[in-house]
Amino acid sequence: MKNSVFFNFLFLLLLKHKSKHIAIFIISILIVFLISSVLFISNSLKKEVFFTLENQSDFVIQKINSGKTLDIPTSWIDDFSSINGVTNTQARVYGSYYFMPENVYFTIIGIDLFEENTNLKELLKTLNISEFLQSDSMIIGNGIKKIFDKYHYFNSYDFKLFNNETTNVKIFKDLPKESNLVANDLIIMDINLAKKILNIKEDEASDIILNVPNNLERQNIKEQLILRHPNIRILQKENLKKEYENMFNYKGGIFLVLFIVVIFTFILILYQRYSMISSSDKKEIGILKAVGWSIKDIIKLKIIENFIVGFMAFIIGVIISYIFVFILNAPILKNIFIGFSNIQNDFVLNPSVDFTTIVTLFLFFIIPFLSAVLIPVWKISVIDANESMK
Predict the structure, then answer these.
(1) pLDDT score, position 123
(2) What value does the CA radius of gyration of the chain take, rounded to a whole number of Å?
């Protein structure tokens, strides 16, 4: 049998059976669209979060008492810096500020602009430090800007202090929307101003961060830190990465289980659909066998016919998913992964496609798809030609 004749007949058959395949085609697109959207969102968030964590310090040290986090003395910086293998030891100041009109909390971060701050170095490259320090100033996230604009705080905002006084802080600039995932509710200001607003003493900080360049020394240095100050909690960057990865895997796993249930149900429906041998199917097989087609050729024809249907459904489902996630920004669905924050977060999902995952998804979809078709097709192809033509 010539290949050209075979494929010409195949495409004619697809056109003839288009009404038969349309329902399966649409359902397949929906299934692929949903699971692809979940994978695209998960990969994009993972990439963004892990990139942010990669720029964080190796250790975060907090002072604790009876499980409660307390402000840490800045004098401990010298203690930690004196340990061999420890570099870039800095104090961090941060905390929550309650905004009563909206019943939400802002996250205030204080930075020392004269220290090398690896976590915010990209921001500081474009920041005019002398102009920023001319008056009490702040840089705000996109979500906070929307709230301030709503209440007409266009140029500055009066923060209420713990002694019931207020301090006016100028809005220096707002962060781009692209940073919303990690900076939507952030207020960045000078470290001394942050201490004043958050009621932190001058000789204290929220926590202390430090780096340990040699991976092999980290466990040893962790033990030395605890020996010097036993009332501390040490958070390692590697552990934070694992926690975030577990969170994404857990939420993605829920969708994967749902996908398996849906695909299994779909395959059963597909099998039942193709098991119903109509008179037209019998007559078609009878004609093919009468003109010399073998059982092998008939099975090959039917398998390729359904492979094209499944493959086209998969491609269209992935394309629609890509548009939904990375162009339309996955409305509603993306919030399942990050939860609903206290400030509405309209973050942008940056394109991130793992082709290995796409190939794996294709195999998980197409193999059960074709398997559900194979047995009914064989049952049709072994029908006696004379019986089929009756």
Answers:
(1) 58
(2) 31
Residue 267 and residue 373 in contact, taking contact as beta carbons nearer than 8 Å: no
Q: Which two tokens stand for residue 186?
A: 């952030």
Distance CA 223, CA 211 (A): 15
Q: Is 164 left (phi over 0), alpha (psi -120 to 50) or beta?
A: left
Q: For residues 333 and 57, what is the distance between their CA atoms, to the nearest angstrom?
A: 32
pLDDT digits (tens, 9 = 90+) for 287-334: 777 777 777 877 787 788 888 888 999 999 999 999 999 988 888 777
From the centroid of its chain, how far is CA 170? Answer: 34
Determine contact, residues 90/207, Cβ cutoff 8 Å.
no
Long-range contacts of 148-155 (CB under 8 A, 24+ apart): 151/101
**Strands (E) located in 66-103:** 68-70, 72-73, 87-99
Give start and end residues of each alpha helix (H) in 102-236: 121-125, 129-132, 142-150, 180-183, 191-198, 218-228
Supply the pTM of this predicted model.
0.74
The whole-number mean pLDDT for each consecutive block of 10 residues of the chain, a chain of 390 residues, reads: 64 73 84 87 81 82 88 92 89 91 90 64 63 85 91 92 90 81 84 93 92 89 90 87 73 68 70 60 70 76 83 93 90 70 71 83 82 71 61
Contact 321, 40 (CB under 8 A): yes
- Pairing relationship of beta strands 166-174 and 156-160 according to DSSP bridges: antiparallel
- Report the C-alpha gap between 344 and 334 in whole angstroms: 12
**In whole angstroms, what is the distance from residue 139 CA to residue 107 CA?**
12
Q: What is the DSSP string of 178-210?
A: GGHHHHTTEEEEEHHHHHHHHT--TTEESEEEE
Under DSSP, the state recorded for 128 is: -
d(CA 286, CA 74): 88
Tell me the pairing of strands 68-70 and 72-73. unpaired
Q: List, for residues 106-115, the tens digit of each pLDDT value.
A: 999 998 876 6
Of 80, 60, 140, 85, residue with least CA distance to 107: 140
Q: In the prediction, which pLDDT does 197 show?
A: 94
**Burial (CB count within 10 angstroms: exposed 0-12, middle 13-18, buried 19+), residue 92:** buried
- Rounded distance between C-alpha atoms, residue 138 and residue 107, angstroms: 12
